[in-house]
């Protein structure tokens, strides 16, 4: 992850903490999870081509991954009416789901309690810790004040993929891109998130809280 990404819509210097955890926090989690997907399994910590998982781990992984492949393969992209290639996009889909989960889980972690991470020496984190402890986190404009911090987290995640691609671009991407279309990256990832459905109180069995969710990590 290069420093150039620390701009909107991934990072907002003066935004509430929940906004940045939902955007750049998710992106960081996404990239970390690539170390534990089908590609990461075949490269060791030095980047050398080497399978470092046991056969048992690989077999369990493949069984869980099939859920994602089937789920995304059934997803119809609304602009083109075409289905996503769940096999082509497997690694990125897994990273999307795992990255969002990890960022949500750590959003309220007090890293000061984990000195081995050495985060408290960072000026930005000192400010973050001070604001959190005093309840002085920055606030969004009035029209957004009706949302909780957790709701803002997920809204920020979805906003990261707000776009206006042409139908031709989407058709080409469905064939060549290892990433799912932005719409699928938001909708399917949130459908799999119990944290999301709990936060927005989505009815069980509804579109955004299906009975069957795909979970890997």
From TrEMBL:
One of its GO terms (biological process) is protein processing. Residues 3-104, 124-214 form the Peptidase M13 C-terminal domain. CDD domains: M13. GO terms for cellular component: plasma membrane. One of its GO terms (molecular function) is metalloendopeptidase activity. Pfam families: Peptidase_M13 (PF01431). Belongs to the peptidase M13 family. This is Peptidase M13 C-terminal domain-containing protein. It comes from Leptotrombidium deliense.
């Amino acid at each position: 992850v290069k420093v150039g990404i620390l701009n909107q819509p991934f990072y907002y210097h003066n935004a509430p903490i929940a906004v940045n955890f939902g955007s750049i926090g998710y992106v960081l989690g996404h990239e970390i999870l690539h170390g534990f997907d089908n590609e990461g399994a075949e490269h060791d910590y030095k980047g050398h081509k080497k399978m470092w998982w046991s056969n048992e781990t690989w077999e369990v992984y493949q069984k869980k991954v099939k859920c994602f492949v089937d789920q995304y393969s059934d997803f119809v992209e609304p602009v083109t009416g075409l289905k996503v290639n769940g096999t082509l996009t497997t690694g990125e889909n897994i990273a999307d789901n795992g990255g969002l989960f990890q960022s949500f889980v750590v959003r309220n972690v007090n890293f000061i309690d984990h000195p081995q991470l050495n985060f408290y020496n960072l000026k930005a984190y000192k400010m973050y810790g001070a604001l959190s402890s005093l309840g002085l986190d920055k606030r969004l404009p009035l029209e957004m004040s009706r949302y909780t911090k957790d709701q803002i987290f997920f809204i920020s995640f979805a906003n990261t993929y707000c776009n206006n691609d042409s139908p031709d671009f989407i058709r080409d991407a469905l064939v060549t891109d290892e990433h799912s279309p932005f719409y699928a990256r938001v909708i399917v990832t949130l459908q799999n998130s119990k944290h999301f459905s709990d936060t927005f109180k989505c009815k069980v069995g509804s579109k955004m809280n299906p009975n069957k969710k795909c979970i890997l990590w």
